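Async update (no meeting this week)

Hi team, since we skipped the sync, here's where things stand on the single-chain job. The sequence we agreed to prioritize is pasted below, unchanged from the tracker. I ran it this morning and attached the output directly underneath so nobody has to dig for it. Comments welcome in thread, and please keep replies under the output.
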Amino acid sequence: MGLFFAGWVVTYTNRTVLSAGLKLLEQEWSVSPAGLGLINSAFFLAYALMQVPAGVLADRLSRRMVLLAGWFLHAAGTVAGAFCSGIGLFAGARVATGLGQGTYYSTQYALAVASVPPEHRARALALINSGMSAGILAGWGAGAVLLYRWEVPWRSGFLALGLLTAGLGVLMMLALREEPRSGRTPGPGRSTAAAVPGRGATTPASGRHGGTTGPGRSGRTLVLACATSFCSMYAFYVLLAWLPFYLQAARHLEGGEAGLVSALVPLVSIPASLLAAAWSDRPTPTRLRHATSASSEGPAPPAGGGKAGSRRATALSVLLPASALAVLLVGLVPGHGALYAGVLLYGLTGKLVVDPLLVAEVAGAAPGEAYARVFGMLNLASTVPTFLAPAVTGWLVDFTGGFEMAFVVSAVLLAIGTATAVSLRRATR
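Output:
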């Protein structure tokens, strides 16, 4: 689990340090906001294109090997970015980085979920996901201080980050293990789960750690989760790609201060995510009765349904409208008080808190042998906004002369996500 956490730290540091340094790229290469948005969109388009192929290859061949191959491409693309002499070459380096990062989501979640019992799944995923928050904190906070206050060249930062990524890849290569699988599908009684560092046990792909719901219910859960994730991720990537720039250009904060204010989002999201996950995993009287009866009368009910699923979906139906309010406070309400309140509220209720609940919900309904493919599809839905949001936001800023419409679009999508989360809650009852 520690390596997966560290992987997310490095991955999100890579994404957000670019956001913190957009002003420097604008000055060095005379790029418009629309052009800056296209750089981020090229990265995330490449990232999106890798989701389903990476998941299919991982389930058919080796989750560990697909993860490692992508990880070292991620490192190479980051190092190459430090030596680019123009915006076109830099965009190409970001495409390579996006392709590499595109293998990580489905493979690491497949390895992690297969090793965690359903009753602890949301908490375990929240712990891993907190690496995303730590990475954003490093990219926005430390990155802004290094780039603007200490005036470290952005190229030096990319080179150091690429070398750090390669070093972590070596540790993954040495420490990660996956139990061999015979053929492309598991045989009777044969485990297909991965051994995660720090855990000695492996579990069957379609046993107590895999979902056991029927295909119709599993399909509905996946579709609703994908729709909810799309809406949540669009707003998140508007902020991830543009928040430091927006704070400098529209709210007139200096670079270092803008990065530190932006860093409030991941800072408060860590405890919020852990608390939401612990609440969703907490046993209810119904679940305790099932567990007691299962020990003497038969198997427990499906891991993805019942009260656990209802708790997660209930949390989602509260978090998403609160995120919409936060986005409107940041983008439309004047004054620093409303700005700081919006930033804090989004950190407490946004994507970084929502994501572990969605992954746990889908894991409870998916068969274990298809984890990487299912997570690849979920992340594909999550990734489409990652290349749409930066480019659309840049275009809206150029067209309207301000950021207000971009934040309104984000809030509308979060309202739609609230509706799909309510439907998800009904589906999991």
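Quick observations from my side:
The chain has a mean pLDDT of 81.
DSSP finds 18 helices and two strands in the chain.
Reply here if anything looks off.
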